[in-house]
Amino acid sequence: PREELRVLRDESHALPKPIEVDARASGPAFAVSSANHGETVWKVVERLARQRGILVMDDPEGRLVLTQLAAERATDRLIHPADGLLKIATKRDSSKRFSDYKVKAQAGGRWASFAEGDVPSALAHVEGGFRDTGVTRYRPKTILNEGAANKEGALARAEHQARRNIGRGLQARATRVGWRQRDGALWRPNILVRCSLPAMNLDAELALGEVSYRKSASGATCDLDLMPPEAFTPDPPRSEEHT
Q1: Less packed terminus of the chain by CB within 10 Å, N or C?
Q2: Average pLDDT over all residues of the chain
Q3: Is the entire prediction scored with pTM above 0.85?
Q4: Residue 11, exposed/middle/buried by CB under 10 A (0-12, 13-18, 19+)?
C-alpha cells in the first residue's frame, strides 16, 4: 500500500502530454500578444487564429489543426431516401439576419493618412455598409468595430457579418450507418458534402462542422452537423497595430 501511494503521488505531479500541432495554414507572427483574464489556452489560440483568418480544430489523432475553410469534398453524398442514411433533419432560422449592416469605426494610426477633408471628422466617422437582399423588410443592424479601420475595412466587416449570418440560418443534421465513407475515409469536420434532399427543398453543398461517432449494441453510427460554408468563415484579419 505504501509503495502504491508513492506511485500515485508521482503520477499526480507528472507533466501533461504535449499537444501536437498540424499547421496547414499560417500567417505572420504576432509581435505582441497576451491572454485576457480568465481566458483558457484554447480561447487564446482561437482568438489569435481568427485575426489571421485561420480555423482551429482537432483531428482523430488528437492534434491541434490550424487550417483554412473546407476545400476538400466528401466522396459520399447525402441523398434522401438512400441506404445508410438513417435520418436527417434541417432547421432554418432567419432571426439573426438583417436587411442592412452598418459597421462604424474610427480611423487611427496608419489609417490616418487615408482621411480626407475634415481630418478629425473623418477619423471619428468611418462607416461601411452591406445589404442582405434576402431580407425583404427593413431590419438594420449597426456594429461597432473592435479596432480602427478605413472604409474598405468597415465594408469587409459588414459583408463578412452578413454572409456569416446567412450561413448560420441553415443547419442540417444527418445520422448515418458506420463511421466511414464508401472509400474508407472517416467522416471528419471541414469537408464539403453534397446534400440532395428534395423533400426538404435542399440541394446544396454544405460544410461538415461537427461529427459525433457512436457505437452501441445496434452497431456503429455517426451524426453529421452541416451548415453552408459561409457560416464557418473566420473573422476578417485585423491590423497588427490593433491586435
Answers
A1: N
A2: 79
A3: no
A4: exposed
